[in-house]
């Protein structure tokens, strides 16, 4: 696999697949610019070499055509600030404006194409669409690890039209850090799995049972485990058809000698809202009409002790409904524990994208852990052992 460091972009027009799928508020202000900042080294290397960068990305989920709220023009001020130079904009990704602007682009200049998903052909992995995109540049750089698990036109299919296919710094760092966790983890190795559903995490949990010493389970999926073990969960989140699977996972962990840590107490609410009435109860004792929305203080202490004794930490998924400040205590406490293990105990910590990355960044800890992944789904699929189309296209 060619990497950015090993390639000279002088005189080249680099078509760079980036992941600018950033959250915007109603005034089109970016609320988390992590993904934009992550691309700075790759774009800087291209223009400093004397090449030009043609950036392409998706934003949101347009319904099959241009939509104002999903236009990438809204992020241009943030890009110009990040890259420290003007960013040109083509109001289409394969139309005449894109062709003309790409053709006239000079060394050191940056062009942003309009949202790729304004064309349904992008997500369909349409070969003709990929070929049209490919004609805008003469080297393909894939730096969008977050979409590498999708066989879309710009993330995988267009690779076939280039002799030079290069992995950007984000892509390279994501793969290097994932491999470090999977192949060279220092022990004790602890995985923290949170989030709503067991069904989203079955494969990664099964894979990790062969790798880790400790598995901490938090978030909404714990209530399915609790119910399966005969506990009362009130109206908490439940995957009723996954209860046998939950018990099976616990049995597999025991057979493999992996220590499983689950909540011993929960903060529950009488309504799904930040302002709901709250009470802390022992796990398995949530009253009817109440639902668990966070881990309790005893669980925080238990989980923190495990994290602080670890040398390798993988965290994917929050401990509760962290979007509500009153139920973010558990998630924030785990973030603090991971930071402390990293900074004071020399642990290697990988935050696995998605909600975990948002939680860590919101708490201001993003630069105090070893690595924050930009791709939740892609990272999980890579760790599950699946071939990622966007990575395979670079080989």
Your description of this structure?
By secondary structure, the chain is α/β, with parallel strands linked by helices. It is 34% helix and 17% strand. The chain has 15 helices and 18 strands. Strands 1-7-6-2-3-5-4 form a 7-stranded parallel sheet. Strands 11-9-8-16-17-18 form a 6-stranded parallel sheet, with helices on both faces. This is Phosphoglycerate kinase. ATP binds at residues 201, 292, 323, 353-356. Pathway: Carbohydrate degradation; glycolysis; pyruvate from D-glyceraldehyde 3-phosphate: step 2/5. It is an enzyme of class 2 (transferase).
Defining traits:
395 residues; alpha/beta; 7-stranded parallel beta sheet; 18 strands; nucleotide-binding
Strand order of the largest sheet: 1-7-6-2-3-5-4
Share of residues in helices: 25-40%
Which strand-content bin applies to the residues? Answer: 15-25%
Query: Termini, distance in Å?
Result: 5 Å
Helical stretch tally: 15
Poorly predicted segments: none
Global geometry: elongated
Strands, total number: 18
Quaternary organization: single chain
Radius of gyration over C-alpha positions, nearest whole angstrom: 22 Å
Structural class: alpha/beta
Strand count, sense and barrel status of the largest sheet are:
7 strands, parallel
- Mean of residue pLDDT? 95
Protein name: Phosphoglycerate kinase
Catalytic activity: (2R)-3-phosphoglycerate + ATP = (2R)-3-phospho-glyceroyl phosphate + ADP
Family: Belongs to the phosphoglycerate kinase family.
Main location: cytoplasm
């Amino acid at each position: 696999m060619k990497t950015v460091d090993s390639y000279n972009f002088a005189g080249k027009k680099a078509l760079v697949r980036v992941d600018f799928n950033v959250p915007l508020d109603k005034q089109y202000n970016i609320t988390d610019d992590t993904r934009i900042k992550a691309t700075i080294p790759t774009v800087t290397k291209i223009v400093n070499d004397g090449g030009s960068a043609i950036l392409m990305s998706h934003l949101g989920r347009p319904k099959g055509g241009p939509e104002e709220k999903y236009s990438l023009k809204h992020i241009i001020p943030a890009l110009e600030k990040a890259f420290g130079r003007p960013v040109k904009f083509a109001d289409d990704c394969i139309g005449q404006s894109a062709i003309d602007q790409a053709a006239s682009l000079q060394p050191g200049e940056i062009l942003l194409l309009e949202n790729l998903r304004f064309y349904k052909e992008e997500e369909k992995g349409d070969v003709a669409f990929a070929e049209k995109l490919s004609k805008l540049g003469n080297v393909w750089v894939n730096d969008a690890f977050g979409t590498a698990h999708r066989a879309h036109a710009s993330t995988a299919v267009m690779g076939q039209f280039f002799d030079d296919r290069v992995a950007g710094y984000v892509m390279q760092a994501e793969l290097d850090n994932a491999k470090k966790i999977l192949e060279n983890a220092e022990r004790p190795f602890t995985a923290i799995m949170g989030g709503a559903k067991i069904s989203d995490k079955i494969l990664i949990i099964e894979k990790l049972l062969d790798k880790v010493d400790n598995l901490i389970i938090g978030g909404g999926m714990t209530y399915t485990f609790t119910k399966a073990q005969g506990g009362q969960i009130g109206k908490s989140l439940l995957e009723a058809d996954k209860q046998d699977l939950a018990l099976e996972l616990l049995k597999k962990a025991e057979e493999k000698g992996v220590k499983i840590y689950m909540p011993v107490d929960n903060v529950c609410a009488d309504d799904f809202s930040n302002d709901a009435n709250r009470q802390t109860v022992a796990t398995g004792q949530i009253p009817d009409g109440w639902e668990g929305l966070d881990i309790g203080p005893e669980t925080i202490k238990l989980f923190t002790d495990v994290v602080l004794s670890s040398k390798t930490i993988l965290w994917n998924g929050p401990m509760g409904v962290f979007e509500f400040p009153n139920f973010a205590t558990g998630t924030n406490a785990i973030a603090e524990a991971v930071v402390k293990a990293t900074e004071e105990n020399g642990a290697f910590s990988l935050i696995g994208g998605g909600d975990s990355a948002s939680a860590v960044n919101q708490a201001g800890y993003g630069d105090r852990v070893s690595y924050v992944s930009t791709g939740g789904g892609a990272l999980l699929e890579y760790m599950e052992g699946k071939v990622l189309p966007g990575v395979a296209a670079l080989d």
